[in-house]
Amino acid sequence: MTDSSSHDSRSPESMLTLAITVLQSQSTALARSAARITTSFEEAVELLHTAQRIHVIGVGKSGQIARKIASTLRSVGRPSSFLHPVEAMHGDLGVVQNGDACIMISKSGTSAELVELLPLLKARHASMVALVGREDSYLAKNADIWIDASVERESDLWDIVPTSSTTVALALGDALAVALMMRMKFQPADFAHNHPFGQLGRNLTLRVEQVMHHGSSMAVCQASTTFRDAIICSSSKALGCVCVCDQSDKLQGIITDGDVRRALQSHDDIRQLTASDVMSIHPRTIAPETSLQEALAMMEEGERQISVMPVVNAEGRCVGLLRLHDILQVQR
Predict the structure, then answer these.
(1) How many CA atoms lie within 13 A of 215 on its CB side?
(2) Within the chain, where are the H helices?
(3) Per 3-state DSSP, what percentage of the chain is helix, strand, and coil (rounded to 5)?
(4) 147 forms bridges with which residues in the sheet?
(5) Nearest Cα to 326, choosing from 306, 301, 308?
(6) What CA–CA distances, in Å, run from 320 to 248, 285, 331?
(7) Distances 188 to 22, 194, 324 between C-alpha atoms, Å
(8) What is the DSSP letter of 35?
(9) CA 327, CA 293: separation in Å to the nearest integer?
(10) How far apart are CA 40 and CA 209, in angstroms?
């Protein structure tokens, strides 16, 4: 190590260098892991696809990774749980049934708790996938399928703290989950079904008409309305714009805060201006039945993100207003 008398190891420069080194080390470990993928991965996907239930097992830091992998598998529609090897030996083994599959995670492949548990799981006719770092280990040799999760070294200075090895294990677990999604023909709507309160689930299941501002809550004026009155109308609703419509509610344009600023910059005297002089014609619009996910993509597409969008039905009538904030707000 560098002599602290000549270089302060706590300096910002040394910390940044260390951070870069750690990230590069883990990136290298992932790249090497990707290069070692074999047909055993495909076999594991098929085994997990046909299993009644999946139990992900690990102890220590590997146990934390196992918890996350089990959670991810559940979110993509595979019944899964984390099984603590010690708790399994004290009653939780009863959750494992004939036709289940187990993913056992261990860097060494010789973790005592997992070694003791494996034959008991096999006695229950559970299939085994060993996600471990040594092919010659007990777990790798006695599992149905071994997936290489080895790393050359950990990311810390002394090669002792589970860092690169846990990153690789987590990434391989994610790869299995994504592959299972494809095998199951999993769709975004399925994900939303499992995440009804999550932002993604909300965006996939809710429609524009369910969150848009409409009726008296939105600012609307006619093309002949004076610019001054249009600004007052917009300010009274505090939605950042006013929709310009004809007497049949057909959308003719929109005046946003940006349009107001541009008008003020271009005209010394605004007293003669009307809404038609200032409005943006042919604004991007959206149908009320569109999902929030599609709406978000529409508002973010192109070089300039838009924050408000008129909602127009099939007859061309302006029936509401959608703000970016309405999509991104956290569901209570």
Answers:
(1) 2
(2) 12-35, 39-50, 61-75, 85-88, 112-123, 138-142, 164-183, 188-194, 199-205, 208-211, 227-237, 257-266, 275-278, 292-300, 324-328
(3) 45, 15, 35
(4) 131
(5) 308
(6) 14, 10, 21
(7) 34, 10, 21
(8) H
(9) 8
(10) 48
Cβ proximity of 259 and 276 under 8 Å: no
Give the model's pLDDT for residue 239. Answer: 92
Q: Which residues contact 295 (CB under 8 A, 6 or more apart)?
A: 208, 286, 309, 322, 327
Task: Tell me the CA distances in angstroms from 87 to 84, 94, 95, 117, 166, one per residue in order.
Answer: 5, 11, 11, 11, 22
pLDDT less than 50: residues of the chain: 1-7, 330-332
* CA dist list (Å): 119 to 57, 94, 106, 184, 282: 14, 14, 16, 30, 69
Question: pLDDT tens across 56-77, in order?
Answer: 999 999 999 999 999 999 988 8
Q: What is the Cα–Cα distance from 283 to 298, expressed in whole angstroms? A: 12
- State the pLDDT at residue 294: 86
Task: Return contacts of 281-284, CB within 8 angstroms, 24+ apart.
Answer: 281/252, 281/253, 282/253, 283/251, 283/253, 283/254, 283/309, 283/310, 284/309
Tokens of 177: 């989950």
List the end-to-end C-alpha distance of the chain, in Å, as a whole number.
51
Kindly give, in sequence order, each residue whose CB lies less than 8 Å from that of residue 21, ignoring residues fewer than 6 positions away.
155
Kindly report the length of the chain: 332
pTM of the full structure? 0.65
290 vs 296: CA distance, rounded Å: 10
218-228 burial, b if ≥16 CB within 10 A, otherwise e?
Answer: bbbbebebbbe
Strand partners, 103: 56, 129
**Long-range CB contacts for residues 27-31, cutoff 8 Å, separation at least 24:** 29/151, 29/152, 29/155, 29/164, 29/165, 29/167, 29/168, 30/167, 30/168, 30/171
Measured at the alpha carbon of residue 87, what is the angle toward residues 83 and 89, in degrees to the nearest 5?
105
